[in-house]
Amino acid sequence: ATSSSSAPLASSSSSGDVGRGAKKTGWIFSAAYYQQWFDVDTDDVLSRTFEATAKCYAGSFARACDGNPDLYGPFWICATLVFLHAMGGNYAQYMSSKGKSDGEEWSFDIEKISVSSAMFFGYCSVAPVLLYLVLRCFAGVPTTSLSFVQLVSTYGYALTVYVPVSLLCVVPSEAFRWMSFIAGMAVSASFLFTNVRPIAGASPKGAAVVGPVVTAVVGAHVLFGILLKLFFFQSF
């Protein structure tokens, strides 16, 4: 009698553990379908931001996600960066203009808000789509080794380092701003390199795919960082 009463408890516990990692396959236009990509807690987000910054060289982001990549972190990282770059860019220009004696008055550039929104959300959406198409259609990476949501999550968390970078760039020194952005680009690009390379390596075409794909990913990411610096934190 005792063993029969305890069996359902053990069964329900194990099914609860499996349930969080199980993915829904319902109607794609329903809100419930996308809820699974926001099923994370604070510890999950913090551990993944740690992987994207302090452990950018490890290439262990997929293991940290443990089959449960999320869109919650990338969304709020992009939203935070939109605010910081729009506001911080304006403040940085204000600080740089204080020492000038040309008589030109500083004014708030509202255009930076829309541009930063387009840049961060656009990059975090378009770049994973292009990479997924290349890996799936041209490189032949199997679906067992390739997840579109995992790519979006990887790109989103790769932008984490630009949060402290944008705060440091309010300092009215072009040399310091460039050093901050170069350091941020190095961390962010290293994170993408070490996590995209194993995915590209699953291609049956081998090294013929890995080199060009990884080079394109890192090059595009560095270019994105340079554009951020020139548009938001450049003193003229």
Question: What can you see in these coordinates?
Answer:
- This protein has about 240 residues and is mainly alpha-helical.
- It has one domain.
- The protein has helices at about 1-20, 30-35, 40-55, 60-65, 70-95, 110-140, 150-160, 160-170, 175-200, 205-230.
- Helix 5 packs parallel to helix 8 (about 160-170).
- The longest helix is centred in the middle third of the chain and has 28 residues, at about 110-140.
- It is globular and about 60 Å long.
Write the layout of secondary structure elements.
Elements lengths: L1 H20 L9 H5 L6 H12 L7 H5 L6 H26 L13 H28 L9 H11 L3 H7 L5 H27 L6 H26 L4
Helix pairs in contact: 5-6, 5-7, 5-8, 6-7, 6-10, 7-9, 8-9, 9-10
Helix vs. strand class:
mainly alpha
Strand content: under 5%
Shape: globular
Uncertain spans = 1-20
Family: Belongs to the YIP1 family.
GO cellular component, one term: Golgi membrane
Subcellular location: Golgi apparatus membrane; Membrane
GO molecular function: small GTPase binding
List keywords for this structure.
236 residues; mainly alpha; 71% helix; Yip5/YIPF1/YIPF2; Protein YIP
Write a concise synopsis of the structure shown.
This protein is mostly helical and 236 residues long. The protein has helices at residues 2-21, 31-35, 42-53, 61-65, 72-97, 111-138, 148-158, 162-168, 174-200, 207-232.
